[in-house]
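Email to the structure team, subject: DUF3631 domain-containing protein model.

Hi all, the expression group asked for a predicted structure before they design truncation constructs. Nothing fancy, just the tokens so they can compare against earlier work. One-line instruction: predict DUF3631 domain-containing protein, return tokens.
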Amino acid sequence: MKKENLADMLKKDIKIKADGKMVLEGVKDNIQVGKVDPKNIEISEEQLRKELKPILNKIIKVLKKYMDLEEDYYLLIGIWILGTYFHQSFRSYPYLFFNAMKGSGKSRILNLVTLLSKDGIVLNSLTEAVLFRTTGTLGIDEFEGVGKKGNENLRELLNSAYKKTGKVYRMKKVSGKDGESQEVEEFEVYRPIIMANIWGMDDTLGDRCIQLILEKSVKKRVVKLIEDFEDNSQIDYISREISKGFGSYGSSGTLKTIQQNWNKFVLDTDTPNTPQTPTTPTTPTTPIDYIYIKINNTQLLGRDLELFFPLFIISDFCGKLDDMLKIAIKIVKERKEKDIFESMDVQVYDFVAQYEDSKFTKVSSLTSQFRIFCGIEEKQDLWINTRWFGKAIKRLKLDLDKKKSSGMLVILDIEKAKEKIKMFKEVEEEDKVEEVKIK
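Reply from the structure team: attached below.
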């Protein structure tokens, strides 16, 4: 009888016992083949596809039972949860952030997601030591405290913990024959993190997150349910299935390979100085090439691509890549529109704060002056017009009075604008002070 090697064994269902012994299911007498470190067991692409899709469906079913979310969120969160079991396969893994209304269930979603994720825990307060001395998925509730003065080092760690290169070095005392000495101890801070708060977060950390809006539910069927997660048979079943299937492995060579070959695909397919356009393969390609082509056609770049790339790969193994691509495009588009909207609001505050005329002025004239103030060329950003500016000052409540006379005229609330702009100017000044200190 031909002796099977490890590669042959992996094509069969493998069960890891508590003592670390690997057993081949379906083999006579369940022949034990010796102790094997689960991290050294490679999961085949076929096994991944077989295992992931049914587990994802069960996760989504549980999420829908306990949470009232936008339909797209269920798939995204489910994929993110699965990805926590393989996050070591990726160079980076996005944070998940819920910007939640009061009473919208942010603590519930944190508890549920961390329970379904790999080695998940939820903390109401976070310290540097806890961040780099613990492992597994971390849920941070009441995230506002991280932004307080004195937590600069913690924020710095969080800014780097989404990347595999993020490391922390600390000195520790060691005793020897010659007495005590100091030696460097290295910690890896890279881990899956999910956060939630009411007030949002700063731009730097927010740039590492996939941000989702959590609204208060009116579905009584959902809000009447208590959090019985630890006793829930569905959740227990999912946890056992994950542990049995791939929960101990931590990484996958297949996932790593897909990620590693992306840059080669980009360099081979993109022509320098030529605008990218969606492509369709005209010659037979591998399944991985099809994944790359679909991802490339989203036109996602930089940090956006970096954050969603792991989720794209996991979603493909669940048969949900096309859906995940649409969700990513939608989220990125909405965020960019929000960024433009908010940044232009700051510009409006700044413009009005520096305006000196407290008399009635035509909105059309103010619009022209605002465009000059922002350095906008004549045929550039035509959406910044009289109608937009009029709505902006009304929405920001910067119109003390208004009247119609050959067009709309307003008196600007200059004092209010001066107070509002301080919120943004003071932040800039603080950043400058920090830069000076660092230098």
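Residues 6-41 form one domain. Residues 1-38, 426-439 have pLDDT under 50 and may be disordered. Ping us if the truncation boundaries need rechecking.
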